[in-house]
Each structure stands twice: as structure tokens, then as C-alpha cells.
Amino acid sequence: MTPVSESEPMDPQTAFALLRHAREARTHAYAPYSHFPVGAALLAEDGRVFTGCNVENAAYTVGNCAERVAIGKAVSEGARRFLAIAVAGPDDSVACTPCGACRQVISEFGPDLPVVMPDGPDRYKLTNMRELLPGAFGPASLAAAREGR
Length: 149
Ligand SMILES: O=c1ccn([C@H]2C[C@H](O)[C@@H](CO)O2)c(=O)[nH]1
Ligand SMILES: [Zn+2]
Prior knowledge:
This protein is an alpha+beta fold. It has helices at 12-26, 66-76, 100-109, 129-132, 139-146, and strands spanning 39-44, 49-53, 82-88, 115-118, 124-127.
């Protein structure tokens, strides 16, 4: 997939391609408890795409979200710089915004990282963590506390 710059507006071809990867990943969702399958696709700066799906558990609280599975896969394979993440919930006509835990994890890797969500068959919504998680606790918060700021 063609790498794009994070500062550029998301080009529609890349957005739709990433959404296709997220929908494909959604087919692997393990969601026997919620029946709410989610897929995610994360585009790394080097062009690699890392996908994830939600992985639930009989001990409900240890289930993981699609976004964090994708980020974990990417980081464990050496990717840390990302250009966009697409998230596809069960219904392509309703944008599925990342949960609070995922907002925190996405924010770690880029407050401005474009988040693409399907919004009908040929439309998508774009947002980022600056919008969804304003005032996030991040690496700078740790440094500020250490230095007494
Ligand atoms: O953005 C989201 C929102 C929810 N879920 C998962 C968690 C759980 O398995 C199911 C219902 O919340 O959907 C995700 O993977 N990503
Ligand atoms: Zn989540």
C-alpha cells in the first residue's frame, strides 16, 4: 500500500484500501460473547499493514480489542511509526469509535494518527486522538511529573 504522510489529508484510495483490510480482519473476530465483531488495519510508515480483530475470553475482562491487537502485532514486528488506522465495527453504516483503552494506546503512537471508520457503503469518517482523547496522559506527562512541572 502506498505510504502517505501523516500531515497530509488522508487520500481516499488509501482510506478505502485500509478499510478493506479492516473488514477482512473482522471476519476473524473471536466474539462469541458480545457478538460484536471488529476489525482493524494499521498502516505503518514503511507500507506494511498490520491487522487485528477483537479476541474475547470466557473471563470477559481479559478480552482484547481489534485496535490493540493490531498495534501489538505491529510493535512486536518492529513498526512504531504509523500513518493511519482503520476500524470496522459490525455494521458498515455505523462508525465504531475506539474504546477508552484503545484511545490511550493509539494516542501513545500518534495523537494525530488518522482513524478511518466506515460510514455507509462508500463513505468514511476521519478522526484522531487529539479529538477523541483531549488532554491525554502521554510520554510528556511522565517527563513533566519527573521534572516537577
Ligand atoms: O472499537 C472497538 C470497540 C469494541 N471492540 C470490541 C471489544 C469487545 O470484544 C466487543 C464489544 O465491546 O467489541 C473493539 O474491538 N473495538
Ligand atoms: Zn478498544
